[in-house]
Amino acid sequence: MGELLRRYWHPFAAVAEVDELGIKPVRLLGENLVAFKSKNGSYGLIDRQCPHRRADMLNGIIEDDGLRCSYHGWCFASSGQCLEQPFEDIANPKARFKDKIRTKAYPVEAKAGMLWAYMGPQPAPLVPNWEPFTWSNGFQQIVFADVPCNWFQCQENSCDPVHFEWMHRNWTSVLKGDGSYGPTHLELAFEEFEFGHIYKRVREDTDKDNPHWTVGATALWPNAFFLGDHIEWRVPVDDENTLSVTWMFHRVPADREPFVQERIPYWTGPVKDEKGEWITSHVMNQDIVAWVGQGTIADRTQEHLGKSDWGIVMMRRSFEANMKLVEAGEGDPKAVIRDAEFNKCVELPIKHKELFTASMTLEESRRLGDTLQYRINRPDYQHQVGQPEAVKREYQIAMGMIPEDATETI
Ligand code: FES
Ligand SMILES: [Fe+2]
């Protein structure tokens, strides 16, 4: 599985985060690394330990074109090449020992406010330019959560329509004590396509003319859930930990156009409260509760799958097939993009696209959202707990909910 995942780019940090920190520890696909931004503006992702005598590069010194180990001053470019070894360069310059030293390094690219890493064989494919990344006039934010379980059970949740009814609708009612249950699912369909798996559904309150059926939702290959205005990645930290990364887009109201975001804010939400209990108040937190509840690595031998799980069966088969393909060296696996022209805008099925792209007042977007049963553009971040006040303020100003000079949010 790791070999397959290494054929894809993975978002691992926010651009603004590494811009501010300079150096950030990163654990990705079971490897300990450091991300850094050189003074010349380029990003790097290299081995956490220095190849000299294993000092921690997190304590490194940022240079014009790389990161210098603070123990004995060896300096490394983002390519991993050693550029300088201060004492060796003086003591034995002719040996050019530095030319023989290279630390482990992976390519990094910035896109949609996130830094992406590619940890597989060269040549690297392109970072997918999913259509929503091309939209304008949007307030974007990057939201993280550290999830202590394997990524794959998180991703299986991306192709699991019935959990919306129970976990997000009915369980929320139970937790709030209001006793009402939501409309039940009557029919499901699952399809595989070039970039993942789509599920479609009919509930008691919807029919086959509804976008829930005509468009559906996408489990985006290999490890994301695609919903148009937001994409959630389940990024494998190692076998027992996942970094949840959400890219969120809010179309600003017509009177706030043109809107250009200089810096895309980021934040990490908690998964447990101060008493150490799992947080269940928001949709993403409920999902996290489900994922970790399945065990650190869910034991599939003890499952009993039904018709609602057909999408998960399809996904598992696709992973099997693609792992075999990579093992056999038979070319690119599913959804690898190498065509730059095609990658200018990779379209995916999007429900309620007008809500995210059309020029409307705030009230119009909310009204249309309510009509479409997609609650949108509220003052609070709806999906995950813990949005910092500063990000909330930035969002509310961008959306015209509070004036530019407001010190308090609503
Ligand atoms: S351990 Fe890094 S320079 Fe010596
Ligand atoms: Fe969910």
UniProtKB/TrEMBL annotation:
It holds the Pfam family Rieske. InterPro entries: ARHD_Rieske_2Fe_2S (IPR015881), Cholesterol_7-desaturase (IPR050584), LigXa_C (IPR045623), Rieske_2Fe-2S (IPR017941), Rieske_2Fe-2S_sf (IPR036922). Keywords: 2Fe-2S, Dioxygenase, Iron, Iron-sulfur, Metal-binding, Oxidoreductase. The keyword Iron-sulfur applies. Coiled coil: none annotated. Residues 9-117 form the Rieske domain. GO terms for molecular function: 2 iron, 2 sulfur cluster binding; dioxygenase activity; iron ion binding. This is Aromatic ring-hydroxylating dioxygenase subunit alpha. It comes from Sphingomonas koreensis.
